[in-house]
């Protein structure tokens, strides 16, 4: 027989079930105001480190995606970037005596974690050069670290509190530092442009050791596990070996195309050596101490290897990081490789494009992975490359024709010009060949005229602004009055009556006649490295400029209320800004994408700012856009860690529940 529940208890139970279902907390976000990431998986991996006792615990350092960690042998990855304010991770090192201590060398600083990468702290305050390409921990004293930087080798004896330049070391960029496992007083360094260096006093003093090395552009090193005199060095023209501690070297692998970015030796059988190289060669393996080499690429879909490590406790297990394909793993000593990228969302997105005609359609311009497309609001992604845009292309800008979503434009760096697709990104063709200057330009920004979608502007770095009025068939330079031709960003008012250009060290320019002439509008703009522009769609005379190379205490955002005639500081002090966006439904709500601190939001038109990073695991945010014609308001972000989205909404507060 069923029991009858008193009404007061029924109410209590109903509220309790509701509370538990919504996450057992008050207040509860219930899916709003929290960022959610959704790929694409894979991307550029620049560094690897494997736990010395557990081959399943692996760290990878990525290109502007920060650090990712796997605890299941690459089966899944999680971003671990709390406190890591620079996401361009070039080097990783694990303390061999305390594996929870991990170091990350980045494009701006050296960071330390004492809790297995759960949190990070900057230990490079006193490091003179903060571009760190290599890190080495003294196996006998964890307080002694070596940092290989863009300007030589630095050493600390107090865990990073203070740093000093080493004696006799090169001033060149140091791409590798290795302590000899069997004699840690011996250390080797690979310098780009200066060759091999050796220290015999744990890194205090150094001497050049280049005899026999035909190219001094070195990338990598591997030291024999039991013989400190046997070392392999990877160069731009092959592999070199010494058996006398660097006194003499011989070339054991020669190629004019294979840049050897990584080397690793089997600790149980030192005759087995692995080398990771660029596009043409992939992985090379030697089973006789470097006398002979053969390709070991079965299963590799990307042959540009940036990092490669043998698991110290299980040498038949290897991991490698690639330039465009993420991480691969082998469990049979390189015989076969398997892609292991689940959760490795480290694709750097430079730009996002949406369209009002289809709010769920998105295109993402990426670094070295071409164009990606989503038809479900970013939930899933697929490559959208073909013909003139390859799977390894870098794309800086992307725009969808508002009158025809099948027509998409892409801007490329390195002299690639503008590309166009007429079939929704299935295939692409280079356009602009009628203008030879545009055809060799790096296109950083694109803007489509809201009144005529056949009119398109391309902002280039070095050659100013180009304009087409026939969908890209013909282009002309429109630079009259544009005295700085390094255009980073373009922004057009909703009515199309004004076009703004943000430039590198030239500030902001404005045109009111479709690019026919420009005027510089920098009054009050104290930083002229303008990397972001945003126009209030409800009041187009109000606009915001974001700047980069920002000094401590100086504003990262400026605001104009008179169409750019005058500017005033609008906060974000000390932060470099990659993108700005004004909420189309609320002109007081401004969003800023930063180069190391995630997203910030102002709710009072730039007077004050607060972090807006709940759920955002990528500190480097490159671009922002909105999902058009959608309620609730949805914000999209392209980051070094892939695509993120967030829905705006009021938080849900549950009532207090008391039981009678």
Proportion of helical residues = under 10%
Global shape: globular
Mean pLDDT score: 92
Number of H/I helices: 2
CATH topology of the domain at 36-339: Methylamine Dehydrogenase, Chain H
From the 3D coordinates, which CATH architecture of the domain at 36-339 would you assign? 7 Propeller
Structure description:
Helices cover 3% and strands 39% of the residues. With 660 residues, it is mostly beta strands. Among the domains are: 304 residues, Methylamine Dehydrogenase, Chain H, CATH 2.130.10; 94 residues, Thrombin, subunit H, CATH 2.40.10.500. A 4-stranded antiparallel β-sheet has the order 1-56-55-54, with no helix packed on it. The chain has a 4-stranded antiparallel β-sheet with strand order 2-3-4-5, with no helix packed on it. The protein starts with 6 loop residues before the first helix and ends in a 13-residue tail after the last strand.
Short description:
The chain is mainly beta and 660 residues long.
Descriptors:
mainly beta, 56 strands, Methylamine Dehydrogenase, Chain H, single chain, Thrombin, subunit H, 660 residues, 2 helices, four-stranded antiparallel beta sheet, disordered N terminus
Note the topology.
Layout: H1 7-21, E1 36-37, E2 45-50, E3 58-62, E4 66-70, E5 78-79, E6 89-94, E7 102-106, E8 109-113, E9 121-122, E10 132-137, E11 145-149, E12 152-156, E13 164-165, E14 173-180, E15 183-192, E16 195-199, E17 207-208, E18 218-223, E19 231-235, E20 238-242, E21 250-254, E22 260-265, E23 273-277, E24 283-286, E25 294-295, E26 305-310, E27 318-322, E28 327-330, E29 338-339, E30 349-353, E31 362-366, E32 371-374, E33 382-383, E34 397-400, E35 408-412, E36 417-421, E37 429-431, H2 436-439, E38 443-448, E39 456-460, E40 464-468, E41 476-477, E42 487-492, E43 499-503, E44 507-511, E45 519-520, E46 530-535, E47 543-547, E48 557-560, E49 568-569, E50 577-582, E51 590-594, E52 599-602, E53 610-611, E54 621-626, E55 634-639, E56 642-647
Antiparallel strand pairs: 1-56, 2-3, 3-4, 4-5, 6-7, 7-8, 8-9, 10-11, 11-12, 12-13, 14-15, 15-16, 16-17, 18-19, 19-20, 20-21, 22-23, 23-24, 24-25, 26-27, 27-28, 28-29, 30-31, 31-32, 32-33, 34-35, 35-36, 36-37, 38-39, 39-40, 40-41, 42-43, 43-44, 44-45, 46-47, 47-48, 48-49, 50-51, 51-52, 52-53, ...
